[in-house]
Amino acid sequence: MAELLPRLVARWPWVLLGLLIGMAFGFYQVWKSVPLFKSTSVVLVRDRSTDVLGQIDAVEFDVRNNQAMATISNGLTSLNLCERVASLPKVRSLEGLMPKGPKKLPFLEDPAEKSIITEVPPPDHLAGLIRGWLAVSIRPETRLIDVSVTHEDPNVAKVIANQIVEQYIETRTKSRTGEQKDTLEVVQAEARVVQQELQEARNVLAGYASPLSAEKALAAAEADLSRLGLRYGKMHPKMIEAEERVRDAQERFRSVLLRSIHNPVDVEYWEERGLKEAALSSIEELNQARDMLIARNSVLADEINTISALYTSLLARIKNLSFKTGNTEAEVTLEEPARHGGQVAPDKQKLLFSATFAGLFGGAFLALVLQFFDNKIHEPDELENLLDAPVLAVVAELDEKSLSQIHSSDTESNQTRVLSHESWARHLIFRNEASSSPFLEMFRVMRTSLGLLGPADSKKITVVSSAVPSEGKSFVASNLALSFAQQGLRTLLIDFDLRKPSIHKLFGRKRNDQIGLLDVLLKRASVDQATSSYLDETNLSVMFSGAKAPNPGELFESSRLAALFNEVFQKYDRVIVDSAPLLAVPDTRNLAPFCQNFVLVVKANSTSRRLIKGACRLVEAAGASVSGTVLNSYRDSSFLKAKFKKGYGYGGYGYGSSYGTVYGDDSED
Q: CB-hemisphere CA count at 13 Å for 331?
């Protein structure tokens, strides 16, 4: 968590972007929303009891009867009631009945759609809209129900709320006067019909008593046979006797079932299943009829239970109608009519807060996702923890502004030297000895760090490489060599990248203009002949790559390399080797056993951890190890001041940015 939080803070632009988008969306929601007004009618529910003398005694409704209150509440929101209200001329003629809806941006408006919305739809469609505007709620621990309507026009909301209550009360009054069918005679007639159905079902079930008894006996015989089969063989007397009992039970079941199948009471059931004329001679037919009999018995039993419960209910109702002296029902009255309500939406503060919080959360989540899938190296401590090797230096990103500041520090005393190095690339920042520049100081730190790796006499040869191209290894190697030379040490810089050499570009040379490493490896020239020491740098010598080699990999033969490195080891105090990228070609792996220091250059915010670890495994497989790393193109965030913040260096300057799909495909002579 301690490492994750700084990385998330470093991605603050995403969080800020999410915050701005959320705020913009919130303001847009506030702008497009239409004010809504709410009007509420209040109804009172009470109990109306009529005694024997016809006197009405109004008493309070039982507030514990939640089901009755819920029934009334649902009735107030029924679609039929909304259709009655939608059919009223008083409602359909209301000005502003159809809501305009949210505002739209000018380029999203549809004039045809706008004209259609102003027309009042048919009652069935309008009823659906009214039902959406309507909300009914029961006040806790009271006999009051709030009927609320929310609309863009406060007058429309008031009229519809009052009409909902008025039409509901009118509907209940009409239904109460038309309940003549709910009389004792009607209930008694219905009870007689149900009683007849119950008797018929019982008669049918009684007709299956014998088959069901025979089926149970057959099931018992089969179970006994199965149990004996676990203990005795098929020819055992007990098994033979048990099989005989099963056959007798089957024959008895067949005979009694055939009589039931032809019984007129339930003959339709068996005709529909094609068993009326069946002889049930086979075991399969018998088992099929057996299953049908069991299913029929279950259905008849359920049917009898249902009809019996209905018959019992009707008898209880007849008894109540016969002996009850009064009738009790819930009565709904208008307690408080709806008035012009206040604005209830939109809640601008809530909209803005919600959208802003959502945008902030979204930006933070996006930053977290990017960090989760980010496998690049950003900070020096990340690189050190990944490889368990020291970070020798951190070279910050070097842009054109920084280059101008470095080279503008020239003084009158070194103008001659600068002119003599005019052909050098500007990224050779040691060409003018601008000792006050922090960029030069970083390479001096690197030089000191290399010296701390071991005794100088045994740590002369340093190979500088990288995992993949375009990480700045040639830049680092060249400036490191210049820093050693300015220290007064005899320094040799060798361009061992025969496929894509670049040292000659940094020193303003043509590749084929001088004898180089290729000639030494082919034994066409000596080390002294291939070394360029006329660079106006007293202690610096450079061995360029030389002409283009047709087969560079075959030149890296152990005996040739051993002879070369033994000779330069004796002649120079420091040897800096700029080699090819490790993962691109196998050349650097051949050099690893002959070097005392192996420096891996990693470009910050670019190279993946997988490639870096893969490069280190290749070095270890070659019998060497990474002595230290250099984090190149480092950008120090203003929010994160890491312990390596004094590192400086260069950025992208064009070199190494055009490697072909095949490493070493260089058309330059």
A: 14
